Amino acid sequence: MAHEENKAFLRRVPLLAGLSEQQLEALAAASLRRSYPKGRTIVSEGEPSQSLYILLAGRAKVQRSDAEGKEVILAVLGSGEFFGEMSLIDDSPRSASVITLETCEFMAINKDAFKSLLQQSTEMGMAIMRGLVRRLREADKKIETLALLDVYGRVARVLLDFSEDVGGERVVRSKLPRQEIAKMIGASREMVSRVMKGLEIDGYIVPLPEGKLVLREKISSYLS
Ligand code: CMP
Question: What is the pTM assigned to this prediction?
Answer without folding.
Answer: 0.90
